[in-house]
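From the shared-data thread, chain only:
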Amino acid sequence: MIKFKGKEIKGSHATVVFAAPEPQFRDTFFWGLNGESRIYGGNKGRLLTCYMWLHDDYIGNTGLDGLLETLQDLDDMVGEFGRLEETYEDVDNAGRDYRDCHFVGFVPEVLVGQQSPGPVDGGDRGNDVDGMIRGWIQAGTLSWRQVKV
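Structure, as tokens:
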């Protein structure tokens, strides 16, 4: 499960991938000496990304409206600052917390057979018991910037 600022982003997700913190440094040189010097000043932030299929039984026309509302909610969160939580309920609630993050956005991705990124109707197949995804889905990548590591 992915939560940002305590609010769940419903769907199926891959692991949150994080880059190494970016080092702060300044290259300089001193008069009368050969070569350069590098002065380090600690670490900056890092980018966090997570591939996700947005879904929550968005079935039929009202389901499409629900998915489009979720996409708008993600757009409205851009720039918000808070804690990102990643948990896996099927693995004894294993996961990670990432503090001091601001939401960069959700970028829709093209699925096989699509001409352009957009919602795909998965139909009214499956149910909560068999674990199949049903209804409208949208694949894409969520991104955050962790400003303090």
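The first strand starts at residue 2 and ends at 4.
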